[in-house]
# Entry
Amino acid sequence: DMKVTQMPRYLIKRMGENVLLECGQDMSHETMYWYRQDPGLGLQLIYISYDVDSNSEGDIPKGYRVSRKKREHFSLILDSAKTNQTSVYFCASRPGGANTGQLYFGEGSKLTVL
Amino acid sequence: GDSVTQTEGLVTLTKGLPVMLNCTYQTTYSPFLFWYVQHLNEAPKLLLKSSTDNKRTEHQGFYATLHKSSSSFHLQKSSVQLSDSALYFCALEGRGNYKYVFGAGTRLKVIA
# Structure
């Protein structure tokens, strides 16, 4: 069953605390993504990972870092969270090759930073 | 860099009416365009995709045609249903780097 799983689904943190968002996929996709979704801004790319330990910054990487030690697992880390990082975070994966298109999304992790 | 523009933030329609959601893009590469739909509290899911110029692609009653001459990929449906109420994103895949650029999204609200 093709699935992207995100944990936790809901998280409340205080400003300055560390945050770990985890994502797993069972499709052996090489490429994985972290996006954040804010009203009126659509989905903004934070980081892309092309495979294990092969990560690249997206459009808004500041304040975030990622880790990918296994192909099926991709983590997003916020060191010392800020209130403006309150958002819904989506992980996604993509099959390899050109013209294969589509992203498969997880159900999102809603982070509130107080 | 690549960009996607969706001009409508909110579209409200009575069920049974036709809809067109606008999407234009900019890229220096050969475009690969997508429409994703996101229902409330759910993950975005692929609705349509195309990289072929002037060919209509259809799925679940929705259709779109990629027009490279006008850099457009508008989403249409001839008769909207209440269940079509959702957030619709147009997206562009950047060639060679697998980075997708999303538009801001259009919320479609269908009323009885």
Observations:
- The CA atoms of residues 19 and 99 of chain B lie 29 Å apart.
- Chain B has one domain: 3-111.
